[in-house]
Amino acid sequence: MTTFSAPVTAPRSPHNQAALAASFTNFLTVSVHQILFLRSVYPRATFLPVRAYNYPVRQSRHPKVCDYINDASIAVGTEILKGTITAVSIIISSLRTNQPLERYAFDLSGFPRVPPGEVHTTFEDRMDDATVGVPTAQTVDLEAQFRACLARLASACARLTPLPRDDEFSFTVCIEVREDALPPAGTTTEEQTWIVAEPGKVHLRSCSAPYSVSKLRNGEPQQPPPRVSNGRAKTVPVRRVEAGELRLELWVEEARQKFNEPVDSEHPP
């Protein structure tokens, strides 16, 4: 069975763009598994207790779920290295209505943009003459940052309105690209894992890029990407992470239509 690619310990801060992409995609993998468990998208008995970043989390035991998450994370990492991505979203939708209920948004607009030929060049070596000699920020423990973010994520999920008990759910991984970048063209294996969503289908609080793409399942889109209403009913901030050049913000959005569904109580543990 596929296990977490996240290491037991994380570097204090990424030293180049390749390390930054690897650090984030590892964290994204852990986060998606944890979100699926916390929100009971699949039965909780199908998750294993594991540890990542010295923090107790859960991982799905289903091989296809693991493969989908790993493939999506790899594809996200590819877009980070290309400098095209500005946000990643995990969208939980109702199977009955195909309506989105919750979105877990990772704002990556603070990530640096590095030419493809310099992804292995250290950030320090890429500093221009104007920044040489400027004191750098104190080294940050990235593992502690990710651990705190996972703890805040669990706390935020506990405060969300429960998902409807009489429904089943699916999830989709979406990315949003920068305004001056083109969406994945499908010329590589990683790019072929994405489909382009219609403009305006996915809206993020701090991103205005015209394109969003969602991850395919087994090479075929199961349903059209769900439309998320502009009239969001609730936004729950989770945490900002800053470790050197790795700067991201995570929050949760609950769609308006979620509050139109009958809700009794949260799924049992």
UniProtKB/TrEMBL annotation:
Enumerate the spans annotated as HORMA domain. Answer: 18-218
Which Gene Ontology cellular component annotation is one that this UniProt entry carries?
zeta DNA polymerase complex
List, alphabetically, the SUPFAM superfamilies matched.
Answer: The spindle assembly checkpoint protein mad2
Q: Sorted alphabetically, which PROSITE patterns does this protein's record hold?
A: HORMA (PS50815)
Give a Pfam family name: HORMA
- Record's superkingdom? Eukaryota
Question: What InterPro entries does its record include?
Answer: HORMA_dom (IPR003511), HORMA_dom_sf (IPR036570), Mad2-like (IPR045091)
Positions of the UniProt region annotated as Disordered:
213-236
Instruction: Please give the coiled-coil regions recorded for this protein.
Output: none
Q: Which family does it belong to?
A: Belongs to the MAD2 family.
The protein's name? HORMA domain-containing protein
